[in-house]
Amino acid sequence: MTQRICDCPYCKCVVPETAPEVNGKSYCCEACASAHPDSQPCQNSQCDCHHHGWGGIKT
Ligand SMILES: [Zn+2]
Ligand SMILES: [Zn+2]
Ligand SMILES: [Zn+2]
User: How many A from CA of 40 to the centre of ligand 3?
Assistant: First the structure.
């Protein structure tokens, strides 16, 4: 089993098997996958990736 790391640039969380996949990238949670709209927090409360406001996924 390979562990994937979330593709949210500031997130280091491991991506679970059931994680949402967007444009071929894997994210640990819906919040990361949708680029933290309204600073929606990561599924991991220890993770502060949503504070960085990286501007979202450009499609
Ligand atoms: Zn995170
Ligand atoms: Zn993440
Ligand atoms: Zn994130």
Answer: 9
CA of 3 to the centre of ligand 3 (A): 17
| Span from the CA of 20 to the centroid of ligand 1 (angstroms) | 14
Residue range 9-33, pLDDT digits in tens: 889 999 988 887 888 999 999 899 8
Domain of 39, in residue numbers: 4-51
Classify 51 as helix, strand or coil.
helix
Total domains, the chain: 1
In the numeric block, which tokens belong to residue 4? 């994937």
pTM above 0.85, yes or no: no
